[in-house]
Structure formats: structure tokens, C-alpha cells
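Review this chain:
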Amino acid sequence: MSPFRSWSAEVAPLIPDGDEARRWAEEELADPVYDIAEPTTFDRIARAVGDFISGLFSSEPSAEWGTTLALIAACIVIALIVIAFVIWGVPRSIRRAPRALGELFGEAEERSADELRRVAASHAAKSEWDAAIIVRMRALARSTAERAVVRTPPGATVHSFARSAAKVFPASATDLETAASIFDDVRYLRRPGSGELYEQVAGLDRTIAAARPRETEPVGASR
């Protein structure tokens, strides 16, 4: 027998069969060194959290995540608005009733009803009855506009205001028409005013201010 043939007979075969190869693989993978290389539970959790955060800030989130993020953002904004209202209250621009400014009976008038009443009282204290009557009638009309019960658009006359106000304050219909005539007499016909005539207009203004309007929808005075 040759030396080569004798050496090969004593060496184990280098290529195992199928069962032998599976056994070797199982023994090899059972080695603890592979447990170290395999990801732990903590690694899996950390990877999941990382993927979640990455999804939140990705430039192109999925449709599902886009809807979720929009809802979260809306809830945050609403919560911030509610907190702001609780801390600082209603803004003044919302809390304050809008002033009914603009033209009144053919003339520009920017003053409020209270301001007009003070001016009228000042004229009355000086026995300036014409001016007192005119300003007090304007105060009456401005007060109903501020209460949003009677509108006085540009071009509205004092008599159209009286007719519109009578629909809201029917108990004062006659007095409203009388006050409108007093205003016209003093303002346009140059008839002299008096303390008695002024008190008629002022008393009506006080009555209307204390009365409850019959209709809630504002009535517009025509020309």
C-alpha cells in the first residue's frame, strides 16, 4: 500500500453528510458567544422608539401618521387657547361692545350715547335749549343703535328713526313721533326750543333706555 493511501485512511472526511452538518451547526450556535451578538429586549425597544420618533419628524409621513399628527396639533392649539382665556380672560376687543359710529340724521357723529347725553345736559344747564334738544335726540338714537335694536344708516331721517323705534318700543310710539317733530322744528324750521320741550326729549330718552325692546332683531330706519 502506498504512503498516501495509508495517510488518507486515517484522516476524518472533510465534507459531512446532511445530518452531521445540522448537528455541527446546532452545536456552534449554542455557543454563548452568539447570545452577546443577538439584540436584547432593550435593544428592540430602543429601536422601536427611534423608529417612532423618526416617523414623527420624517418629511413624508404616512397618511395615517399625517392624520394623527394633525389631530395632535389641533388639540394642542385648542388647549393653548383655552389656557390663555383662563389666565388672561376675554380680550378687550371682544368684550367691549362696538360703538355705533358714523353719520346720524345727516351729520357726522362719532360720539357715544353717554357722551351726547353729557353734552346735552351741559347745553341745558346754560339754557341753550336748541342745542340741548338736538343733541339729546341724537343721544336717544345712538343708544338704540348701541343696543343693536334700531339701526340708523346714513341718510336716515329722524322721523324714519321714530317709526322704526316704535316697532321695537310700541308703548312709546306717540312720544317718539312727538320728539322727532320737536327735533325737526328746532333743527330745520328754526323754531325756538324750551326747557319743557327739552324735558320731553330727555324723558323719552330715559324711558327708552330703561325699556325692554319687543324685538331682538335690529330694525333699520329708512330714509
